[in-house]
Amino acid sequence: MTTTTVRSARPSRLGRVEWKDYVVYAGFVVVFLFFAVTQPSSFLSVANLTNILVQAAPIMVLAVGLVFVLSAGEIDLSIGSVVALSALSAAVVLQSTGSWPLAVLTALGVGLGVGLLNGIFVAVVRLPSFLVTLATMGLVAGLARELTDLQSVPVTDGTFISLFGAKWLGLPATVWWAALVLVVGGVALRQTRYGAHVLAVGNNASAARVSGIKVARVRIAVLVGSAMAASVAGLLYSARLQGARYTLGEADLMTAIAAVIVGGTSLFGGKGTVVGAAVGSLLMAMLNNGLILAGLSVSQQMVARAVIILIAVSISLRGKRGS
Amino acid sequence: MTLTPTVQVPLRLKGIHKHFGGVVAVERFDLEVAAGEIVALVGDNGAGKSTLVKMISGLYEPSEGEIWLNGEKVSFRDASDARRKGVEVVYQDLALVDEQPVYMNMFLGRELVKGPLRLLDRRRMARETQTLVDSLDVRIPSARATLRDLSGGQRQGIAICRATHWANGLVLMDEPTAALGVAETAKVEELIARLRERGAAVLLVSHNLDQVFRLADRIAVLRRGTQVGVRSVRETSRNEIVSMITGLS
């Protein structure tokens, strides 16, 4: 690097950034080794590792959407219920029309609609995204319950199931779809003007505005993106489980937020990483899986997961306040 | 003040008037800033300096009067419109993005892209930024350094480089050193003086009369929205400017 004057930039960067940003990788290795040592036969089997990937897939998709939202300095609490409503709408459309393209479009339409609603209230009416998406979370969850009167809807369409649930090259399609979302999200955040604008808005919205960036448009776009990512997650669920239910995605909001934060994305905007979020999602899925294998009951799992998430998030957020 | 309507004057304000409802903020303001000239705009709080700057940068629309840029009469829909027409502003509170590298700040909102996928051309942005900061002698570790790791003076240096790079002759500076320490201020002042040597027209809003006398060629004084006068630095004194600002003799 050509350098005119050498300041203390390098060492301070090392101290401030590096280790926190790699917490997720260290955590991943530690948790992996822990389960590998304590339950070598069950945890390390190919079937179980594949299962972890499958469990992680919808979380990853949600996490990619959230990385953009958090990077822009916003939050989206509605994604969990969008998962349920998208999955249910797709299942209902499949059941009544038998057309999988229509089902997919309906699910994506749900995401687009909720995302626009969130975006307009945040960017145009200018309410905090926390409040807006808290409200739409309830609204969408209510609609999901209303849609089928709390009944689950089976999915039997073969094309639809194989599109999201078949095995390609030894891995379930749902994993490939998540990988695609990861690549697109990663490139968009790191290598496009859109990604640069998202980070700029989250870092310093007024600087972004005077630099000619359409701040309102960016805010709407990230919220539409995260809601549509939730729709994709809903599609993945409904194909894999061959059915949809209003409870889908219920626990995913916290898991996805934890995955993103642990991955190194700032909760306060301006800094985001898709790769970190992906590893964070794997970490969360691995924890879920390991806790089940360890024989914990559902309620014990909830407690253990919450404690672990709290610890992980505190570790990855701690140094950030120091700088 | 030149009265000949030279065509290439970077900024010419004619009879600018702005009122908000019944409150008059700026009353009949005329000013020209020539290329290679620094004109300081001084006045007490509430004298109308910021209103004037906001009109030139497109945030407010003048109620009456005309803004001419490089011999062309302009009106701005909004700040980005003014920016497209070549008005660049350096703010005191650093309109920069801390978590991004220097070159991304230089190209903020106008990032260079390449290829059919329109991916960011980081290498070219970094290279052009390096050339620019080197040519203006702004000392930073590298164009790829993260902004957060730079000092306040270096950051303001970046902001000024950016404004110079994109400006169409005119750079507006709104208290550019208000947030800086003494040594940093000196550096930034050097940089502003260099802009003049390069032929830029600078309109400098400053509270700091010492700075104004160090840098400016002419001083325009505003009092309660009215232009009290324009003085050449060589033909005036601190006392005269102070009494013009306060209205007391």
Could you explain the architecture of this structure?
With 323 residues, chain A is an all-alpha fold. Chain A has 15 helices and four strands. Chain A has a single domain (23-318), classed as Orthogonal Bundle (ABC transporter involved in vitamin B12 uptake, BtuC). Chain A starts with 8 loop residues before the first helix and ends with a helix. Chain B has a single domain (11-246), classed as P-loop containing nucleotide triphosphate hydrolases (Rossmann fold, 3-Layer(aba) Sandwich), CATH 3.40.50. Chain B has helices spanning 49-56, 79-84, 102-106, 122-135, 152-166, 182-197, 209-215, 238-246, and strands spanning 11-20, 23-33, 37-43, 64-69, 72-74, 87-90, 113-114, 119-120, 170-174, 201-205, 218-223, 226-232. The chains are: A mainly alpha (323), B alpha/beta (249). Chains A and B meet through helix 1, helix 10 and helix 11 of A and helix 2 and strand 8 of B.
Q: Please provide the ordered H/E string of secondary-structure elements of chain A.
A: HHHHHHHEHEEHHHHEHHH
Please give the alpha-carbon distance between the first and last residues of chain A.
25 Å
Our Rg estimate of chain B from Cα atoms comes to 18 Å
Extract low-pLDDT stretches of chain B: none
Q: Structural class, from secondary structure content of chain B?
A: alpha/beta
> Major sheet of chain A: order of its strands?
1-4
| Count of runs of 4 or more consecutive helical residues of chain A | 15
- Compute the CA-based radius of gyration of chain A: 20 Å
Question: Based on the structure given, which CATH architecture of chain A is correct?
Answer: Orthogonal Bundle
Briefly note the CATH topology name of chain B: Rossmann fold
CATH architecture classification name of chain B: 3-Layer(aba) Sandwich
Largest sheet geometry of chain A = 2 strands, antiparallel
Most extensive chain interface and residues per partner: A-B, 32 and 36 residues
Distance from N terminus to C terminus of chain B (CA atoms, Å) equals 24 Å
Give the topology string of chain B: H per helix, E per strand. Answer: EEEHEEHEHEEHHEHEHEEH
Give the overall pLDDT of chain B as a whole number: 88
Largest sheet of chain B: 6 strands, mixed
Overall average pLDDT of chain A: 88
